[in-house]
From TrEMBL:
The lineage of its organism: Bacteria, Bacillati, Chloroflexota, Dehalococcoidia, Dehalococcoidales. The gene is cca. Its EC number is 2.7.7.72, 3.1.3.-, 3.1.4.-. GO terms for molecular function: CCA tRNA nucleotidyltransferase activity; hydrolase activity; metal ion binding; nucleotide binding; tRNA binding. It comes from Dehalogenimonas formicexedens. Belongs to the tRNA nucleotidyltransferase/poly(A) polymerase family. It comes from the Bacteria. It holds the Pfam family PolyA_pol. CDD domains: NT_ClassII-CCAase. PANTHER family: A-ADDING TRNA NUCLEOTIDYLTRANSFERASE, POLYA POLYMERASE. Residues 37-162 form the Poly A polymerase head domain. This is tRNA nucleotidyltransferase (CCA-adding enzyme). One of its GO terms (biological process) is tRNA processing. Its cofactor is Mg(2+).
């Protein structure tokens, strides 16, 4: 089954020297135990494409945990999962995953597969796309030899994303999202038959749990340009499976690109807030419920709604700093960054910048204790007076401690019953 192609020279170029050294050690430890040992999945694809910085997934026809323990400098460097016979190993500054090669069957669509040990060829046949279904032998007798049972090399050369069999999306509809993600990341095309299967099987996304769907969205949000995936997903009628009002249009492309021009690597929740920016408050709540977003994700979405609803204040050149701060106080940084991208106004951008850099940090010189000493009783008045002083400072109407004390004295005098 091995292909003529030998990837040894490419691996030599692509791998950091310490990883290359690790693979040699691991290879001889596996060989000493009679276990075959392979590099699999995305790392093989990326080595062929000459894409740097890939994670290593290693597959052993044998005991992956035993092999990890044999290689590790200390057992503390190994995290194991006995149920799946997998191990994660710390090696220098790297994390390396070792997995027992396995085969899978799907008890029903959308369910997680039933897994049992199996040979490398079967391990490759359970994978999502041909370009991810290749292995490279790390065995001393055929080191670097490509194992390509599904035509992955041909598809890499033709730049195609192709499933391994027509039932692939029925087995696991999350692969539909993965197909679009790889297509856009690699600049490939989804192959025509696979595209037809996406159209046929996209209803199967309804069989996937919210947590797995959310995971797929999270993977997209960490891509370099998530908007490309959203645009293509919209074309394929997939975006609406998350929420019918989501759009992957040129507005979204522009604001996502703007996010990258503002911050080097925008947080995924910035992209999430932008994706959902134009949903109404109730649509955002439906979206949050349907994908069971985490608390920080839901916060980014709700905070961005609070900003969208007060766009008028942010864009008004006359708005006082205290009014801008009243809108933005307590909102997440990601929602503020998203707002800078989504609200198309220089005034809003300046207001948000000044809030983040200055106004947010503005606080009265007087403390609660000072107020009590001046005669303010413990209770809600304390906070409202401090907030009032903060707002006057923001608007430049109070600048000194004496003026703050004066404000408090006036407030005390103005209470009902005081003359
Ligand atoms: P990358 O995102 O760069 O491809 P990766 O290859 O490590 O990283 P993972 O999502 O970690 O991607 O998956 C590892 C490998 O497991 C994939 O290359 C693929 O072969 C396989 N795989 C992952 N998810 C699925 C799935 N839903 N169905 C079938 N195979 C999958």
């Amino acid at each position: 089954m091995a292909n003529d192609e030998n990837l040894a020279p490419r691996l030599g170029e692509a791998l950091p020297p310490e990883i290359a050294a690790f693979l040699k050690v691991a290879s001889s430890e596996a060989a000493a135990r009679g276990w075959r040992f392979y590099l699999v999945g995305g790392a093989v694809r990326d080595a062929i494409l000459g894409r740097a910085g890939f994670d290593l997934d290693l597959s052993v026809e044998g005991d992956a945990i035993g092999l990890a323990m044999a290689i590790a400098a200390s057992p503390d460097d190994v995290t194991v999962h006995h149920r799946f016979n997998t191990a994660r190993l710390k090696w220098g500054g790297h994390h390396i995953d070792l997995v027992r090669s396995r085969e899978e069957t799907y008890p029903r669509p959308g369910a997680l597969p039933t897994v049992r040990p199996g040979p490398i060829n079967m391990d490759l046949l359970r994978r999502d796309f041909t370009v991810n279904a290749m292995a490279v032998s790390l065995n001393p007798d055929d080191w670097g030899c490509l194992i390509d049972v599904c035509g992955g090399l041909r598809d890499i050369r033709q730049r195609l994303i192709r499933v391994l069999h027509p039932g692939s999306f029925i087995d696991d509809a999350t692969r539909i999202w993965r197909a679009v993600r790889y297509e856009q990341r690699l600049g490939f095309r989804i192959e025509p038959e696979t595209l037809k299967l996406i159209e046929r099987d996209r209803v199967m996304l309804g069989t996937i749990t919210p947590d797995r769907l959310r995971y797929e969205l999270e993977c997209i949000l960490t891509e370099t340009a998530p908007e490309k995936v959203f645009r293509r997903a919209d074309e394929l009628g997939l975006l609406s499976t998350w929420h019918p009002s989501l759009k992957g249009d040129s507005w979204l492309s522009e604001v996502c690109a703007r996010a990258r021009s503002l911050v080097e690597k925008p947080h995924p929740d910035v992209y999430l807030a932008l994706l959902a920016w134009r949903l109404t408050a109730s649509e955002k709540e439906e979206f949050i419920a349907s994908l069971r977003f985490t608390k920080p994700q839901a916060r980014a979405l709700r905070d961005s709604q609070a900003i969208a609803e007060n766009g008028g204040i942010l864009t008004s050149p006359e708005a006082k700093p205290s009014a801008v701060a009243a809108v933005l106080h307590g909102l997440s940084r990601d929602s503020l960054v998203a707002a800078k991208c989504a609200v198309p106004s220089g005034v809003a951008g300046d207001n948000i910048d000044r809030f983040m850099n200055e106004w947010k940090h503005s606080a009265p010189l007087l403390t609660g204790e000072d107020l009590k000493r001046l005669g303010v009783a413990q209770g809600p008045d304390l906070k409202s007076i401090l907030d009032g002083i903060r707002d006057l400072r923001l608007d430049g109407l109070i600048c000194s401690r004496a003026q703050e004390e004066n404000f408090v004295m006036e407030w005390l005098k103005s209470r009902p019953g005081e003359s």
